[in-house]
Automatic annotation (TrEMBL):
Residues 121-354 form the ER-bound oxygenase mpaB/mpaB'/Rubber oxygenase catalytic domain. InterPro entries: Lcp-like, MPAB/Lcp_cat_dom. This is ER-bound oxygenase mpaB/mpaB'/Rubber oxygenase catalytic domain-containing protein. GO terms for molecular function: oxidoreductase activity.
């Protein structure tokens, strides 16, 4: 095959909701070529030099000193840190130099489009983004390699991911030094700490697993939160306008830039994201036994909704697992769902499809009624705030992610 001939369709996009989404929403033939795939795979050996240098500095300094400098620069800016070490200065000079293409009005518009759907967004977040990400076995290796028990940490990870997502998708939160901006950079630092820890492991298999938390894996995670999220919401009946989809992608493009994704890899538009997803589906979505273990842990986390509620709790736990598992199964397709061990419940799947139809009808009414979209945004914002407060009352939310950094070390 010539390097410029298009490659065959990957199995990942041939079944389930992804097949339907490809037919409905992909911008024509998005298949890549062998040369494009080879060029993409080179990023598997590239990490995040600015963040990695900063973590090396933090590890050299006395305990707590480097992190305190980071937090001060995060809150007040690098100019507020006198005689800042070169590594800290380079990191924040870069992140504070907002790219020319960033449009804060569009960032806020994208956030509002997410906010107006309220807590419905939690289904694509957990059942499509997180569960789908487990199909990429190379990307799961740092999760397993940190040494924390997957089964014990899955509920905490689900809660922290949800809390982080709520932070970064709030209008205005990505302005420099605001809480969403800080949340992105803290997670970037966590990734660098984990990467340093994995690079110290004598059993890390670079040939099979690539560089830990490399550029491909980071941009793949970005696509799960951007393109896959939008596709999931549409499959659940949400109707986004073309401008709303573009603004959501603009929001995640900036988040990806703050996360340290190199400009040559960072998708600028929805079309870019589709072509990148196709290449990732061809090369990265290769599940293994760790994928199964992570999927089982995530389902167990959903089951935890019934804990301590007696007989009613057992019903809630069963319903939660079946409902979330059905969303994942419908989107990921039969083969992927069977491999991950997801429940196959036709009744629950029918309920999901019926709910999508109801959502579509309600969305059609919203688009036709003046003022309904603004009202939906306010209702969605209220629901998100209440849910975030409830998470804070039930779990100890550490927005600094210090525990993850200690675990990595």
């Amino acid at each position: 095959m010539s390097g410029d001939q298009r490659l065959p369709e990957p199995d990942f996009l041939r079944t389930g909701g992804f097949r339907l989404a490809t037919l409905l929403y992909a911008p024509g033939d998005v298949r890549g070529t062998r040369r494009q795939l080879d060029a993409l795979r080179e990023y598997a050996q590239t990490a995040d030099p600015l963040a990695d240098d900063l973590v090396a500095l933090i590890e050299r300094l006395p305990d707590g000193e480097g992190r305190a400098l980071f937090e001060r620069a995060l809150a007040d800016g690098i100019d507020a840190v006198p005689d800042a070490p070169a590594e800290l200065d380079a990191f924040f000079r870069h992140t504070e130099a907002t790219p020319y293409w960033v449009d804060h009005a569009r960032l806020d518009a994208g956030a509002r489009a997410i906010v107006r759907t309220g807590l419905l967004g939690l289904f694509p977040l957990g059942d499509m983004a997180l569960m789908g990400g487990y199909l990429s076995s190379r990307a799961t290796k740092p999760l397993v390699g940190t040494g924390a028990l997957i089964e014990d940490m899955a509920p905490k990870r689900l809660v922290e991911t949800t809390h982080w997502w709520l932070d970064v998708t709030t209008p205005g939160a990505l302005r420099t030094h605001e809480h969403g901006y800080a949340a992105v950079l803290r997670v970037r630092l966590v990734h660098a700490h984990v990467r340093a820890a994995m690079n110290r492991r004598p059993d890390w298999d670079y040939g099979a697993w690539d560089r830990p938390i490399n550029q491909i894996q980071t941009v793949g995670t970005l696509l799960l939160f951007s393109l896959v999220y939008v596709l999931g919401m549409q499959l659940l009946g949400v109707r986004y306008s073309g401008d709303e989809r573009a603004d959501i992608h603009h929001l995640w493009r900036y988040i990806g830039w703050l996360m340290g994704i190199t400009d040559g890899l960072l998708p600028a538009t929805e079309d870019d994201s589709w072509r990148l997803l196709w290449l990732l589906a061809t090369s990265e979505f290769i599940p293994d036994d760790d994928s199964k273990r992570l999927a089982a842990a995530l389902l167990a986390a959903h089951e935890g909704v019934g804990q301590g509620r007696g007989a009613l709790g057992k019903v809630l736990a069963h319903t939660s697992v079946r409902l979330h598992g059905s969303v994942s199964r419908l989107v990921l397709g039969k083969d992927n769902a069977d491999f991950l061990g997801l429940p196959n419940d036709p009744v629950a799947q029918g309920a999901v499809l019926a709910g999508a139809a109801v959502n579509f009808a309600a969305e059609s009414v919203r688009r036709a009624v003046p003022g309904a979209t603004v009202a939906a945004e306010r209702i969605g914002e209220l629901g998100r705030r209440q849910y975030q407060r409830r998470l804070g009352s039930l779990f100890r939310i550490d927005r600094t992610y210090a525990r993850h950094m200690r675990t990595a070390a």
